[in-house]
């Protein structure tokens, strides 16, 4: 009976645990390194797009305020 329990434990300790530890510390190292150059470029591009969209929204609100001053009350 004891051998039935020992075999999976030994397999876990010899195969699964080392792979698990290697993958864990590899992911921790990647997290601590921060953004890659590609990720930084994507973040910059998204930030620029968000700024442009905010400007467009302000322009549209200004136009609506001119042409339909009551439009905000409908929201």
TrEMBL record:
Keyword Cell division: no
Keyword annotations: Membrane, Transmembrane, Transmembrane helix
One of the protein's GO biological processes: phage shock
InterPro entries: Phageshock_PspB
Keyword DNA-binding appears in the UniProt entry: no
Top-level taxon of the source organism: Bacteria
Transmembrane segments: 6-23
Pfam assignment, any one: PspB
NCBIfam families in the record: phageshock_pspB, PRK09458.1
Name of the molecule in the record: Phage shock protein B
